[in-house]
Known about the structure:
The protein is an all-beta fold. Helices cover 0% and strands 54% of the residues.
Amino acid sequence: MKAIWKNTIIAESQKTIKLEGNHYFPPDTIKDGYLKPSSSKSICPWKGEASYYTIEVNGELNKDAAWVYRNPKTEASEIKEHIAFWKGVKIEE
């Protein structure tokens, strides 16, 4: 699977975890330099607290377009530190 924004591959992995329609990419499959930490957070009742990243490609920003569960609840432990995408990021095989 590939995560693509602005014709740029942000992440690529054959071992994503699909959960609730989202592909979660292992942290070591994220390409360097595209994700910038954001202060945004959200809470999922069964997964826990998500932290966000803004994607930057060639000076263009996609605010909070990626998220990660650093310390998920037990039920979602398989996605710990894995990163998922939305807001126009295409996921392709």
